[in-house]
Amino acid sequence: MKKLLTLTIVLLALLIAAPVMGDTLVVPDDYATIQAAVTAASDGDIISVQPGTYVENVIVDKSVTIRGVQGANETRVSSPSGGTVIAITASDVTIAGLTIDSSSDFNTAGVLIGGEFPGDERYLGVADVTISKCIIEGNLQGVYIWHASDCTIVNNTIRNNLDDGSYVMGCGIMLWDGNTDAIVQNTPSQRNSFINNEIYKNDRWGIFVGCWPQTTDGTVTSDNSGTKIHGNNLYNNGDYRLLGGDYNWLGIGFSFTSGTKKVSGNKILATASGYDIALFDGVTGLKAVGNPITQALGPNIPMPTP
Question: 142, 158, 184, 188: least buried by Cβ within 10 Å?
């Protein structure tokens, strides 16, 4: 009897500790659109998207996985109106195996993680988002991270994202903590990883990290501790056609960012400007391995605007 009681207690403990598997919702078999599936889903569910083109703007406000079952080459999500294609406002979200395109309005993106700059403070502090095996192309910003932490952008192709003339849009990946000092200080983006992505032919930076402080002395920086940029292939980024001069191809940029950041193992092809990793003002804590760094940006590379 004692052995049976012990076994029962062990089994109960294992059942309690076992992860709860969510339901699988299939688009379009169960729901006609991805957004309808998200609306019907519960935290932990998986949304499997069958091959096809889905013309919609999706707000992911639950902790779900959305994946194209046949991969990004077969499954496309396109913005119908120029707005952000997939906006992630919940933590613990995974997006995989989709092509994501056609955001064209100012401050929109293929994938937006967190609230939207400027002034949208409802979704600060989103965390644990993974974007993998996606093609993110033809947007005003590829992946836009706004005060979100512990996110992983891995094994994606991020290309042909376009500047609209503002010199703010057109990055492959932009981690931008904005220009409101209290928000920058209280909810910085930390421990984000950009790993093994193919990033090319974006009009502005391949990857950009930082903020733009409103203080007159420029002392406020965003504590982006734990940022990891590793194993990416970056080339032909930074097509400043509006400047009327030669192309300036730019790899990775930083502005007003503190905390430990490591850049290693990236392949950044020789740039016309010579700037593989470029630093604006207020950058500390950066460790870069294998690529040159410069702070002498010269006249042909405009500073980020607030």
Answer: 188
Please state, in angstroms and rounded to a whole number, the distance separating the CA atoms of residues 179 and 199.
26
Q: pTM of this prediction?
A: 0.88
Q: Which residues pair with 195 in a beta bridge?
A: 154, 230
Say which CATH number the domain at 155 has.
2.160.20.10
What pLDDT, on the 0 to 100 scale, is given for residue 45?
A: 98
Domain ranges, residue 86: 24-294
Listed residue (182, 110, 99, 174) closest to 139, CA to CA: 110
d(CA 282, CA 74) in angstroms, rounded, equals 43
CA 137 to chain centre: 13
Into how many domains does the chain fold? 1
Work out the average pLDDT over 239-262. 72
Predicted pLDDT of residue 273 = 56
